[in-house]
Design a protein that fits this description.
Elements (H helix, E strand, L loop, with lengths): L4 H11 L6 E5 L11 H10 L3 E5 L18 E5 L11 E5 L44 H17 L1 H21 L3 E2 L12 E4 L5 H10 L5 E3 L2 E4 L7 H13 L3
Parallel strand pairs: 1-2, 2-3
Antiparallel strand pairs: 3-4, 5-6, 6-8, 7-8
Organism: Leptospira borgpetersenii serovar Javanica str. UI 09931
GO molecular function, one term: transaminase activity
Pfam families: Aminotran_5
């Protein structure tokens, strides 16, 4: 596994062949928190006429995403995580000139034009990405999601990003102070909102269970503990996490 964004880019370039037609990639490594150099990757892929698909689950709402600069053809991402929206709701972006090039294996009432008129049945698809909204949407979730977006926009997405980075840096330093090795140290020139670490000599699986029993939301990823603090967290809460880490019985 590449330890730095630059190493990842070089590994990706060396993996591309004349047969490569599409590359799908997360915005941020979900197990280490390492951000990928999306603009450089997009430029490289575009120069070879390779389509770039972004899984935005780990990045949208935290890292800025510019579809033009990153040469993105498609993006899929959920409402939850950094956007604080409801579970089960997702978004899909398709570059306009790519919509008609995709196969469409199934269509529903919401896929065709004049979908409010059920009969007679029609086959003509809507011109936009909403053709993939094959049936009635979950409007209650959209009201919920709109409220979270308005809140984040009122705070300012840049301010949200800086606050998350501040909390992640604070937690990282606290974990290092109690003997944890942090993935962020492999890419110190980049910031991340996902804090991943481990400590020699202890069972990380048991540690994660211990933290959860004590009310700490975390996850086990590649044998390490992962945290994703957000703007609703306080530093004293992160101090408690560090205290629990230091007091974990070996």
């Amino acid at each position: 596994m590449a330890f730095t964004p630059d190493q990842f880019l070089e590994n990706l370039k060396s993996s591309i062949s004349s047969k490569t037609r599409i590359v799908a990639l997360s915005a941020v490594h979900w197990c280490t928190g390492m951000p990928f150099p999306l603009e450089e990757i997009g430029t490289f892929l575009d120069s070879r006429e390779i389509e770039f698909v972004l899984d935005g689950a780990q990045g949208i709402g935290l890292v800025p995403v510019d579809v033009r600069k990153m040469k993105l053809k498609y993006i899929a991402f959920p409402a939850w995580k950094w956007l604080l929206g409801p579970l089960g709701l997702g978004m899909l972006y398709i570059q306009q000139d790519k919509i008609d090039t995709l196969s469409f294996p199934f269509k529903g009432t919401g896929s065709v034009i004049n979908d409010e008129v059920y009969l007679p049945y029609r086959a003509e698809l809507k011109s936009g990405a909403d053709r993939y909204e094959i049936s009635t949407g979950n409007f209650i979730d959209w009201v919920y999601f709109q409220s979270t977006l308005e809140m984040l926009q009122k705070i300012g997405f840049h301010s949200v990003m800086e606050r998350i980075y501040e909390l992640a840096d604070y937690l990282s330093e606290g974990m290092k102070n109690v003997g944890f090795q942090i993935e962020l140290d492999h890419f110190p020139d980049n910031r991340t909102g996902i804090v991943v670490g481990y400590k020699e000599g202890i069972s990380m699986d048991e540690l994660v269970s211990y933290l959860k029993r004590n009310g700490v939301m975390c996850a086990l990823r590649l044998g390490k503990v992962r945290f994703s603090p957000h703007i609703y967290n306080r530093k004293d809460q992160l101090d408690r996490v560090v205290t629990l880490l230091s007091s974990f019985p070996r």
